[in-house]
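Memo to structure team: turn this sequence into structure tokens by end of day. - J.P.
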Amino acid sequence: MTPEIFMLCVLAALLELDTTYAFQLTFSRGIIAAPLISLVTGDILAGIQVGVFTELIFADVNPLGGILPPSAVICAAVSLALHAMGLELYFAFFFGVVGAILFAVAEKLMRKNRFKWLVFWETQILKTPNAVVRAVFMALATSFLMNFILLFGFIWLCAKGMFWLLPHIPMQAHFACRFAYMAVPWIGLATLIPAFRLKAR
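Reply from structure team:
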């Protein structure tokens, strides 16, 4: 893993905090996060393309109630990191989508386990109200660290597995993945049409 990939993971872990934990300035949306992450890799065009595709493919999933949507930041980060390592973007993007879905599952488990920490910090804050600043800092630092570890580990596993598997993949699979990748924006747009029709009525 190069320093470039390390910095990419640091930036993505920070951007992931924007989803619910801090800021909430929409930096975690795919259309914004991917171009920002691509500043680290130097491939802005790939960042814009991944950002648009990520935005379209996850456009129909809303974080309402107990629904935790796949992370657009993780999708963008995994896609651009693997692409920067030499993997074709049409392969890298699908690893990004899988990473985003798995991260949502991991995030759900982490939120359940975080409840114990919340009870602990609540008792600390009741004793000393000034502890609220430390509690917020610890919560953000823990979330950032977990985001970074999960992202870095997933990219490392994908890179090891894919580059070992790549020479054995037939050309037909390359063609199929390229075709599927180019179909992503059309699938995304197709999911948005019913939503626009409902609003028009």
